[in-house]
Fold this protein.
Amino acid sequence: MINGAEIMVRCLQEEGVEIVFGYPGAVICPFFDKLYDTDIKAVLVRQEQNAAHAASGYARALSKVGVCVATSGPGALNMIPGIATAYMDSIPMVAITGQVKSDQLGRDVFQEADVTGACESFVKHSYLVKNTADLPRIFKEAFHIASTGRPGPVLIDVPVDIQQGEIEEFVYPDKVNIIGYKPSVNGHPMQIKRALETLSTSKRPVICAGGGVLTSGAKLRLREFSQKTNIPVVSTMMGIGVMPSDDPLYVGMIGSHGVKAANKAIHDSDLIILCGARVGDRAVAAPDQVVDNTTVIHIDIDPAEIGKNMKTNIPIVGDMKNVLEAMLKDIDYCAPKEWIDSIKDWKKEFAVQHKKFEDYVEPKGFLEKLSSMLKAKSILVADVGQNQIWCANSFKVSDGRFFTSGGMGTMGYSVPAAMGAKFARPTRDVVAVCGDGSFQMSLNELATIAQNNMNVKIIVMRNTVLGMVHELQDTFYGSRYAITELDETPDFEKLAQAYGIEAATVSSNEDAEKCAEKMLKSDKPFLLVCNVHPNTPSR
Amino acid sequence: MKYTLSVLVENHPGVLSKVSGLFSRRGFNIDSLAVGITEDSSISRITIVADGDEYIIEQLEKQLNKVIPVIKVRTYAQDEFISRELSLIKVNCPAKQRLDIMKIAELMEAKIVDVSLNTMTLQFADTIERFETLIDLLKPYGIREIVRTGTVAIEKDSAVSRK
């Protein structure tokens, strides 16, 4: 005989899970108790939302399903922002929650919450398990759904009596059979042909690379495509890192917070190849204006994204890597030199401006410098706020990765996601960059970092205001700073020391660089606080 | 414009909420939604009548297709399906008006399913247009209550074979 909790653990083993991030509670105890006997590492975070963010960072760094676990009621509900963040950024994740006993469901008993209901719009799929015998099939399906097609989080809610219930023996299915779920991964050959034909007449083509390129593992294919055809590439925030920042054909990030040259490239182009980008409002504010005199080829694995935000002339539904490989086979095109030249001119003309304030760190310059100090394949995790924009536009990625909460814009993402990334890639440099606002949303995770003695570096851009909104108030609200001042920002250095983490505070780029060098040499966690002037602009 | 969508789903608990939740979440307006088991007891059919333009209906179809237990989505073109709605209509009916209402019922092919001293209840299964005609005819007598099932639709084989 084998009980449900052990079945759950066996399923995780079958799926090759090596680590889960979680927080315990009464009704998930049977599961954690069985997990305790295995080699699967269970990381105790300090709040459930961070378990989901950590699983998300882990999933991104390894291209593998991340797993987070919480108890029923408040535990499960706390996880929702993390699940929703993963959903918006298409991160493969399985979230497991304990639930009250099946026969008590719906009676509002202690710590009962309808988490499958509450999560409905933030998950790719969810299960409320009714029978212990269903567990193997449900876990198999959940991991399959989370990691195939357009990835996303899947929630499995398991009542405590289901974890305690017993069945004869454990058999893990080798196949899934979901009749309504068959993602198409190969682009339609006719559509690919049409796309190539259209491209052949284009005078001003541009590729817009989104997160889908990275998800599909098509980064190198896209670089090859751009090199072969000389087509310039812009990226969305989720697509940062698809192209090396210093590639002459890479223009930069588009959108309201992007670089002018990239927006101009989109605006002046006669053909846009959207690659795994859903062109949200922050990427292209007025897609209708762009489309009027531009042909749009949209490649995406999710057919629902095609035509949703931007009118598309040639839709190609399929996995980015497959489609690009198919296109590369038959491509014979080179973008006109005049177009490339004008883009190069714009890049020079609209270079990122650095506004310096005496006795403060100028973040863009420092981030640029930091990029060159990191080891190869390092991972930078940006939080949300001005720090995100500084990182997006000034941090240079070559063979490393750039993670951020692109779709949901969830503050407090960077520290836990960096933890997850570090567990996934222990030998790489992992740096979280946040503001003093976003840092205070997840600084409790310093305890997790200390407990696991993780070599995660945290850089806090301390400007004593909620910079993004503060800036918005300058532009649109007559500089009336309604609840955006962080006057009592604590002494982060002391705070870090309380957790036993080394820290330093700097107020000039010179000191920041010196300190960063020292920080990167050590194999211990480090908190670097950069004093930044509150009026430093995002762009 | 009104569109009729036919959605085949796996007959699991929770599927209906996954489908219906989609409408409010994505800001789609629906006129009616009817659900029932099909000839295969593991599959249910949801028939949806929605209001919108081509863009909205295309989005609706695509979003429905993303719901894992949704097996197939079909938007019926005009004239290629038969649609019916069942309704129960309770109307004021004192003795002296009984004959009048019975006439209307006979004319419209509605069935009288309950009669009391002061009311009469009609059962009516037909198209929405015919339902509206019936309501217009009954209105002067005072309608007390209307219960409608929402539209169900099935593909017309005769129309398909003629093509």
